[in-house]
Specification:
Blueprint lengths: L1 E3 L12 E3 L12 E2 L8 H9 L4 E2 L7 H12 L4 H6 L17 E5 L2 E6 L14 H8 L3 H18 L31 H18 L5 H35 L12
Helix pairs in contact: 4-5, 5-6
C-alpha cells in the first residue's frame, strides 16, 4: 500500500513519497489517485505505475482550468509566494488539449498507467462536473439542466465515457463555510445546492451505467492486451501497404491459391 506524502514546506509538492509498512492494517486497496488541483508530473506518474496503481485522474482537458486559476488568483488575497505554490492549479494550457478518452502513459522499463481524464463536453471542452453546474444554475436552473443533458448526449455520441466529478463544496452552503465564498456557487444556501445535486445525480444515473472508478479502470486494463494486438495488426497492415506502394503491387501481401 502506497501513500503520497505532502511536503511540509510546500504542501502542493508531491515529490516526497513513502511506502506504508505492511504491518499496518489495510482497510481497502488503493488503486488510483487524483491529486489536489489536478497536478501533473512525470515523476509522480511513474512512481504510481511502479507501485501498483491502476489509474491516475490528473488530466482536465479544458481551457476553463487555467482560466479558473486566474479567477481564483483575482478573487483571493494570496501573496506572491502562495501564488507561486499554486501556479499549476487546475492544469496547464497543454493539458487543455489532451485526449478526452482514457489512455495509457507508457515508459521504457515501467508498467503502463491508465489515465482517466476528468470528463469535459466533447467539441466545446467545457466542464461537466457538479461545481460548474452549480455555478450555472445560479443564473438559470433550466440552462444548467439543458446543458447537462446535451453534454451527456454528446459524450454518448462521441464514445466518451462520462465521469461526474464531485467536490465537498457542492454539498455545502454559504452558512456552512463563509470563508469559501470565492468558490463557485458558495454564496448559495445548502438546501438549494443539495436539491440541485440530487437532480443532477438522478439524471446521471438514469443515463449512465454507474461504476466505481476502480472497476471502470479494471475493465480498461482487461481490454488493453486486445487493443495492443489490434494496434500491432494495424501497424503491420500499414507497413504492408507502404511496401506494396513502393513496388507498384496492388495485390494483398498474403494470397491463398484456389484449390
Amino acid at each position: 500500500m502506497v501513500s503520497l506524502i505532502k511536503n511540509p514546506i510546500n504542501p502542493y509538492s508531491f515529490n516526497d513519497a513513502r511506502v506504508i509498512p505492511p504491518t499496518l492494517p489495510k482497510v481497502m486497496s488503493v488503486v488510483g489517485t487524483r491529486p489536489k488541483a489536478r497536478r501533473l508530473a512525470r515523476s509522480r506518474l511513474q512512481f504510481l505505475a511502479e507501485n501498483g496503481y491502476q489509474y491516475d485522474g490528473s488530466i482536465f482537458p479544458s481551457c476553463t482550468g487555467p482560466l479558473a486559476r486566474l479567477y481564483y488568483f483575482a478573487t483571493s488575497s494570496l501573496n506572491r509566494e502562495e501564488r507561486d505554490q499554486r501556479s499549476n492549479h487546475y492544469g496547464s494550457w497543454k493539458d487543455a488539449f489532451r485526449p478526452l478518452k482514457p489512455f495509457f502513459w507508457k515508459w521504457d522499463g515501467s508498467p503502463d498507467l491508465l489515465e482517466l481524464p476528468v470528463t469535459t463536453c466533447p467539441i466545446f471542452r467545457t466542464p461537466l462536473h457538479a461545481s460548474y453546474l452549480q455555478f450555472l444554475a445560479k443564473f438559470s436552473n433550466f440552462a444548467a439542466k439543458t446543458y447537462f443533458k446535451c453534454a451527456l448526449t454528446l459524450c454518448r455520441m462521441s464514445g466518451v465515457a462520462s465521469s461526474f466529478l464531485l467536490h465537498p463544496t457542492d454539498f455545502l452552503g454559504a452558512e456552512d463555510a463563509p470563508d469559501l465564498d470565492f468558490f463557485p456557487a458558495m454564496d448559495q444556501a445548502a438546501d438549494i445546492k443539495l436539491e440541485r445535486i440530487t437532480t443532477f445525480l438522478t439524471d446521471f444515473s438514469k443515463r449512465i451505467d454507474v461504476l466505481p472508478m476502480g472497476e471502470y479502470a479494471k475493465r480498461h486494463h482487461d481490454l488493453q492486451p486486445f487493443r495492443d494486438r489490434l494496434w500491432a495488426s494495424h501497424a503491420i497492415s500499414r507497413e504492408h501497404r507502404r511496401t506494396n506502394a513502393k513496388t507498384g503491387s496492388c495485390l494483398p501481401t498474403q494470397r491463398r491459391d484456389k484449390s
